[in-house]
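Morning - FE2/S2 (inorganic) cluster inputs below, output right after.
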Amino acid sequence: MSVGNSHKIDTSRLDEIINSYDAKKSNLIAILQKVQEVYRYLPEEAMIYIGTKIEGLSPATVFGVATFYAQFSLEPKGKFEIKVCDGTACHVRGSMPVLNAIKSRLDLKDGQLTTNDGLFSLETVSCLGACGLAPVVVINDKVYPQMTSDAITIVLDTLLKEDK
Ligand code: FES
């Protein structure tokens, strides 16, 4: 499996996390959640390390668990995680033009999830439960209602400026 950008793994930090969960196989999900919190995704090296460190596990089992649960990301996430809702209400009210405006503003090629500078990552999600506000975009935990191509471009420009 290839996960693109490789991340320098600090194994002492991983040991700390593993030990804080008693190095127990039954705590694997919690351990992976913590690792994802630290790196914003699950680096391949970290999964291999966990799989060899914890008794009763193997790297293959850790990969299996990580790919099974949607909450885990095997690709690096951006500092700003953009989620475009493509549930029915949002789709009907124009989430696709909004998505395309984001891709074009951030220069994301088809299939590319994270910008080269690691600042933004983009994904589509199913109904966020805010259909009255469709089309909805969420960036980190902030909800942007009734987005249009122009509006989202302004939002992105603002984030880019603030990040400087
Ligand atoms: S369809 Fe987008 S919030 Fe429900």
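Note: Confidence is low (pLDDT under 50) at residues 1-5.

O.
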